[in-house]
């Protein structure tokens, strides 16, 4: 039990302590079974991608799709990334999983470029370990080569919190990817620790405003001012900005008033399975009334 508490404390960071609680036991068993199952998931093709549209607020067109991982667990049902990516990150399984998902996203994007729109952009969320992997550039290059997807149609999303380690090595990798024409997006912007300092050093093309700012936006509220400031920052840095987590018409209208370029959220669509995505994209006729 003390051992378990120690691992929990280590997981919380340096210079901290944890008192054993019985829940620690069940959660460690849970992650143990998830990590064994995860090995099988790869072989059994249980990992899939859902897709959420990103909408251009000005034209009302779908400008891209974000690929979001799901695990069709034989017993637990459909699991979201929060339930298994952290476990995968604890082992090197994340590298294999990330690679598989990236190939899947690129292949799907290339198929939809032919059937839906040649301009379609696919956003893919990198995990922290993938970003640190020295083989990231060759893996991405191979995914594009194998699927035929042009680099201009791929966007890789990273978050500020992933950049705790070797920032210089990360900057080198991102620069190499960008040289090929791949877009880089900084996800969940505004929630990390050193947004501005990082933004200055990182080669990025897109800023995604975290949904916590969008959620609390009401007429004249301080959060409108925050979003406006982030949009201005994006503008000055020549970044394209995407606001995440739009759930209401009011939020959409406020963002229109602020001339936010792109939006994403349940108001437009939830992440959907490939066949539903296809139907949604081919029948989409502009912003919701
Ligand atoms: O970290 P990232 O921004 O990539 O997270 C995407 C997650 O946000 C997905 O799991 C998706 O289901 C969720 N999401 C997408 N749109 C909305 C929304 O409008 N509201 C909320 N609460 N969550 C959303
Ligand atoms: Mn994302």
Characterize the structure shown.
Helix content is 49%, strand content 18%. It has twelve helices and nine strands. The protein has helices at 2-12, 22-43, 81-90, 93-115, 128-132, 136-147, 167-179, 195-201, 211-215, 222-236, 249-257, 274-283; strands at 47-56, 62-73, 77-79, 121-125, 154-159, 183-189, 206-209, 240-243, 262-263. An eight-stranded mixed β-barrel has the order 1-2-4-5-6-7-8-9, surrounded by five helices. β8 (240-243), α11 (249-257) and β9 (262-263) form a beta-alpha-beta unit. α4 packs parallel to α6. It is globular and about 55 Å long. Residues 66, 125, 157, 187 line the site of manganese (II) ion.
Summarize the structure.
The protein is an alpha/beta fold and 289 residues long.
List keywords for this structure.
alpha/beta; binds guanosine-5'-monophosphate; binds manganese (II) ion; globular; single chain; 289 residues; eight-stranded mixed barrel; 9 strands
Write the layout of secondary structure elements.
Elements: H1 2-12, H2 22-43, E1 47-56, E2 62-73, E3 77-79, H3 81-90, H4 93-115, E4 121-125, H5 128-132, H6 136-147, E5 154-159, H7 167-179, E6 183-189, H8 195-201, E7 206-209, H9 211-215, H10 222-236, E8 240-243, H11 249-257, E9 262-263, H12 274-283
Parallel strand pairs: 2-4, 4-5, 5-6, 6-7, 7-8, 8-9
Antiparallel strand pairs: 1-2, 1-9, 2-3
Helix pairs in contact: 3-4, 4-6, 6-7
The structure holds guanosine-5'-monophosphate (G) and manganese (II) ion.
